[in-house]
Amino acid sequence: MTILLPVKKREKFYKKISKGAVFINKFVRYLKTYVVIPKEGLPVHWQIDGFDIEIKYPGKMFWHEEGLTKLDLVTYYKKMASIMMPYLEGRPVTLHYFPQGIHGISFYKRDFKSVIPGLVETFPYHEISQNKIINVPVVVSRAGIIYLASKACVEFHTWASKIADILHPTWAVFDLDIDMESNFQKVLEAADLINEYLSSLGIKSFVKTSGGSGMHILVPLTPEYEFKVVKDWVKQVGVRMQNIHPGLFAMPGKSNKTHETGKVVIDYRQNIITRNTASVYTVRAKKGATVSTPVTWDEVKNNSFMPADFNLKTVPQRVEEKGDLFKELLELKQKLPGIK
């Protein structure tokens, strides 16, 4: 769909696209014709680290209720790319695309047919369920993050291991799930109790919102344990927490559903090699344009936030004020303790 604008002799005209990101401002001679400007804006070009990143249809609405466009999405990733990159570097990623916005069709992509030099490389992995080799994408630069967002990738989901040692995860994941109708305070209480228990074992953990109704607790590890060992350890901790607090915790049932009990489910199965978790600082394709955001344990204990507080608009300012709360996650190496 297009908008037709008449052009007059030496008329200076401009069209503002998405809150000042791009201006068209030029003089034209008299023409007995029309200038055609796409409804969703002319392409925007950014020069990022030597790469020309083109953003087509920058005015396309991605979050209609919030009035947020594709350009708002890419602008967020431009602001956050340097902070995000350490959590993506050398790590397989699954990409979730929404070319028509979050209420349109979407698709996951985790098998790239070719590399994009300087932006996205690939790593060959034997996918057992499909009995074939897939080339999983690996983002190699901050320009790569911005490039993928410009192609309508809203969400980045990372593996727990790195391609340098794909069989041994660098962190364990406690994926805390709850149904949308339940009080989020239950998740905060559950996360706090898990942290207290892990602390009693001498283990330091880091917590972030999932961007949905749950939370993720990550435990940095020395990459020496196979995934099954890590998965079994997380399961043991989960069973222990369920035994101590049966009214609050549950483990995944036979139905494999994790959002239907009214309790906080510890989904230990995230600790399987090909399972991926919403990356640190990824935007989520959910109402409010929420972001999977690191928080402090004091914020958890004080029940001082809701998931919607952390979104595409608020997170860059939060990081500017508080810094990267997960920085130590990438540096700390811990061994798995026994379960008391």
Could you walk me through the main structural features you see in this protein, from its secondary elements to its overall organization?
The chain has 340 residues and is an alpha+beta fold. The protein has 2 domains: 41-158, DNA primase, PRIM domain, CATH 3.90.920.10; 168-277 and 289-330, DNA primase, PRIM domain (Alpha-Beta Complex), CATH 3.90.920.10. The chain is 22% helix and 25% strand. The chain is built from 6 helices and 20 strands. It has helices at 70-88, 142-150, 184-200, 227-244, 297-301, 315-322; strands at 2-6, 16-17, 22-23, 34-38, 44-48, 51-55, 61-63, 68-69, 93-97, 107-109, 120-127, 132-139, 153-158, 171-177, 206-209, 215-220, 249-250, 264-267, 277-278, 294-295. It has a 6-stranded mixed β-sheet with strand order 17-18-14-16-15-20. Strands 10-9-13-19 form a 4-stranded antiparallel β-sheet. Strand 7 (61-63) and strand 8 form a beta hairpin. Helix 1 (70-88) packs antiparallel against helix 2 (142-150). The longest helix is centred in the N-terminal third of the chain and has 19 residues, at 70-88. The radius of gyration is 23 Å and the shape is globular.
In short:
About 20% of the residues lie in helices and about 25% in strands.
Strand order of the largest sheet: 17-18-14-16-15-20
Write down the secondary-structure element order. Answer: EEEEEEEEHEEEEHEEHEEHEEEEHH
Low-confidence stretches: 1-34
Helicity range = 10-25%
Task: From the 3D structure, determine the CATH topology of the largest domain.
Answer: DNA primase, PRIM domain
Shape: globular
Under CATH at level 1, the class of the largest domain stands as Alpha Beta
- Please report the total strand number as a whole number: 20
Q: Give the quaternary arrangement of the chains.
A: single chain
Biggest sheet overview:
6 strands, mixed
CATH homologous superfamily of the largest domain?
A: DNA primase, PRIM domain
